[in-house]
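Fig. S4 source data, part A: sequence.
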Amino acid sequence: MRRPLIAGNWKMYKTIAETRHLVSELVPGLQAVNGVEKAICPPFTALLAASALLEGTDIRLGAQNLHWESSGAYTGEISPLMLAEMCHYVIIGHSERRTYFNETDEVVNLKVRAALKNGLVPILCVGETLRENEAGRTAEVVTRQVREGLKGVDLASEDAPGGPTDPGLVIAYEPVWAIGTGRAATAEGANAVIADMIRATLSEKFGALVAQGTRVLYGGSVKGENAVEYFSAPDIDGALVGGASLKAADFIRIVQAAAGG
C-alpha cells in the first residue's frame, strides 16, 4: 500500500524566527501521528533553521524549487547539491512557478531530472487552469505535463531509488483554479483525474507497477474540514497543503485526517 504523504508548502511566508516558532509548535503534534509521512517545505532562507529543529524526528524537509545545474554562474539560484545536504523533497513545477516565472514543461523536466540525479525526491505539480477546465481540456493539459515533466526519466528501472514499485517520485495534482481560492475540487473529480489521467499516463510510460507505486497527492484549498473526504478516495495518497500548513493546528488536523483520526 502507498503510505500517505502530507507536505506543507509554505510559499513566501515565515522569517527564520517565525519558522522556529512554527516548527516548535508542529513537532509534538506531528510526531504523535503514525502511519503518515509528514513534510514541510519552508523558504530557502529558513531551511537550515527548520533542519536543526527537525533533527531526530520523522518529519521530512523539502524545498520549494531548485536550479537544474549543480553549480555555475547563476546568480540568485539554488542548486540540487546545496539542497541535498538538508532536504529530502523538492517541489517542482508549481503553478505559481509556471505562471509568474514562465517555467515551461521543458524547464520543469530539467529540474525533475536534476533532483533525481542528486538524490532528491521531486514533488511534480500538474494541473489545469479554470479556462482549460471549462474548455474540457483537463486531460490534454494534465497528461501533457506528466509526459513532458518526466521525459527522459526511467522510473521503471530497477536502479530507480526504490525500484519500480517505489520510484522515488511524487506527483501533486493541483487544479490551478482551486489553489488559494477556496474553490476546492470534489474528491470524486480529483480522484478521477488522478486515476484516469495521471496514473494512466504513468502506466503508459513506465508500466503498471510504477503507476500503482507512485504516490499522487491532491492540492488546492485542502483544509481540516474537507481533508477526510479527499483521503477516502482510493487514488489520492495525501495532500500538498498551502495556506493551512502555516498554522500548526490546521496542518496537524490534516495529518490526523490522513491517518484516519
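Fig. S4 source data, part B ends here. The longest helix spans residues 187-206.
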